[in-house]
Amino acid sequence: QPVRLGAGQMPRTKRRQGTPLGPHSSPAVVSRPQDAWDVKPDNSYAPFVHSPRGLGPEGAAGPSPASDDGLLARAQRLGYGSAPLHPLSRAVRDLEFEEWMLRCDQAQAFRSFKGTPFTYVDTEPGLRALAAKLKRERIFAVDLENHSLHSYQGFLCLMQISTRTEDFIVDCLALRREIGPALGGIFADGTKVKVIHGANSDVLWLQRDLGIYVANLFDTGQAARALNLPKFGLAFLLQHYCNYNTDKRHQMADWRVRPLPGPLSLYARADTHFLLYIYDRLKMELSARRSEVLDSVLEDMPPNYPKDLVGAVLWQSAVISLQMYEKPAFTETSYLDYYYKQRVTFDPKQLAVFAGLFAWRDAKARDLDESPEAVLARTQLVDLSRGPKKTNWNGHNAKAAALHVAKVCARKDNFSASHQEEVCEVIASSVKQDISHGSKRVSGPSAERGRRAATEPSLTGEDKCEAGPMGPPAPQGPVVARARQVSEMWGTLDQTRTNRGDARVDGVLASLKLPFLQRGDSAAAVGKKKSPQEDADSKLSAREEGPKVSEGDIRAWADAKAASGENESSSGKSSKSGALPQSLSKRYQISKSRNQRPAKLDGLGTSKPASFDYSAAREQLKSRKQGKKRQQNAVAQSFYAIPDENLVKPAKRRKQPTTGNRSMTYK
Asked: What is the rounded CA–CA span in Å between residue 380 and residue 342?
């Protein structure tokens, strides 16, 4: 229902009931699933607490020491496993592979959708029946569907499981608390192969929501990379091996919808229905490929893993399964990582607004259990930080800021659209601060350090910024200010001439070839004996140059001319005595006449301009056009004359029919 506002309050957009953000992404979703859970998601800044479920005494055994666990060290070097030790690290390292796990002579054909039984599991009896069937299987395919738009950490909606003879879809919203104890031990069983495509995120989602940890994983995405296929996605593998084209439009669908529509159910089922057949085909190609495994992979691989491509894929899948889930962290410099990804350039005030809005958005998303994008979209964050076009937050105006916030927040019906007052408060508190970055000017507490940065080669500042009124303190930490030397061009532009005669002197020096500017009489040339011809040429040039003028004569003449000009201007008299002195005038006239003198053809006379022959020019132009056409014809004829069997001749153009189809097909 629309909210009634008092006088002076900002207008808010209308929104539906059922969520603090307005309408849901799908009309079939009446309420948010997490609102009905007994245990609410923990979006605090505390680390995530891992609680494995369904593990027996053999699975709950502690891991081996970190010094002896090469798998854990390998995962940490790749960026995985930085959290607490994985509960199945020892089991994953000491896996014993049977022959059928490493070799495949013939792929088992998949069944059609109609010929394969399908079960939708949303009750506890159905889940227990599924667990009993999986215990009898030695391999099954798994896929997950996650929702993250209206949740800070996200949550699982569906789990798809396929065996050789049957397909299952498990409702993770209805059985969120029961799936872990029922299926945790099956996923941790090293004697069963779990086939997942692109398991990097699926492994983390299983730990986060269900407390399930995976052992003996085979990632078909890693197998596609080992075979160097053209593409590594599941859609390509389905089309390449099974000739099945999946509709990827449902990839970003709202999986919270209940009951699940038919197209979404078919899409989710297809993700695992063909996966075991693809697993067989990939394993056959990996076994037939005689490629060498990189030495860096062999160094960390345990001795029980095969030293071939199949073993390399199993080892890479094991490293992925060793990941440990961690909650999204918010640090003092988190806004900088997000800022650099936007590929924008902000001044200190704009960056301060960006940091304040980023902290406010994260705090609100944690409190409401919504994604930061649902609170304030990325484009809105950038546009709000950029500020109005005229001011860019340089000179904050409350009225202009409110108009700018209302314009940007009205683009999307999210949390910021109905809470524009809070956005204005965050901006007002952030504009008062500057964050130094790059070579921008630093103001406030760090102004002195910014001035020293102009001369020092590098500088590390300790600038701190306080956040807005909401949430945790805004980014406070070291900010690196990179000093840059000021270009000398600005000093040149700022210089002003005090003497007007300098400009005229520079013009004279540039136009005249004065003796003291010539480098012929250098120290190296002193004492060098000239030839008779060079001596005669030098005497001739001296006679042509006339009397020599020194630089002091020109400076003195310029100063006198400037003084006389000031006297004449003060007395109100105008004079035409703008001519150069006699010595300079003679030298200037000689130079001017020499530049205008025509070029010599020989020692007897000068060249005379000849009349232009228009008829000859026309004939020349006509012959040039004809020659170009002849050249084109010769190239075309030589193309057909080349005796090359591999040469493909261009097809002749079809003639357009006089009647009937006259479309572009015949042109």
From this structure: 12
CB-based contact 591:585 (threshold 8 Å): no
The helix or strand, by DSSP H or E, that contains position 156, with its residue range, turns out to be strand 155-162
Q: What is the DSSP letter of 476?
A: B
3-state secondary structure 248-263: HHHHHCCCCCCCCCHH
Residue from 418, 352, 362, 432 nearest 384 by CA = 352
**Phi then psi dihedrals of residue 169, to 5 deg:** -130, 120
Residue 210 DSSP symbol: I
Confidence category of residue 601, pLDDT binned at 50, 70, 90 = very low
Residue tagged 């029919």 (tokens): 657
At 555 the pLDDT is 72
Q: Enter the tokens of residue 251.
A: 């990839």
Could you tell me which of 244, 243, 245, 250 has the C-alpha nearest to residue 265? 250
Say whether 146 sits in a helix, a strand or coil.
strand
Top pLDDT among 645 and 479 is at: 645
Q: Any idea which residue has 């009898």 for tokens?
A: 136
The CA distance from 330 to 359, in Å, is 8
- CA 651 vs. chain centroid, Å, equals 45
pTM, entire model: 0.62
pLDDT confidence tier of residue 558, bands split at 50, 70 and 90 = confident
> Reduced to 3 DSSP states, what percent helix, strand and coil does the chain have, rounded to the nearest 5?
45, 5, 50
Task: Report phi then psi at 6, rounded to 5.
Answer: -85, 180
Distance CA 13, CA 235 (A): 40
What tens digit of pLDDT does each residue of 482-509 get?
A: 333 434 434 444 444 445 555 565 665 5
**Backbone torsion region of residue 351, taken as left when φ is above 0, otherwise alpha when ψ lies between -120 and 50, otherwise beta:** alpha
Q: Strand locations in 384-466, DSSP E? A: 459-461
Q: Is 513 helix (H, G, I), strand (E, B) or coil?
A: coil
pLDDT range class, residue 398, cuts 50, 70, 90: confident
The Cα 336–Cα 476 span in angstroms is: 11
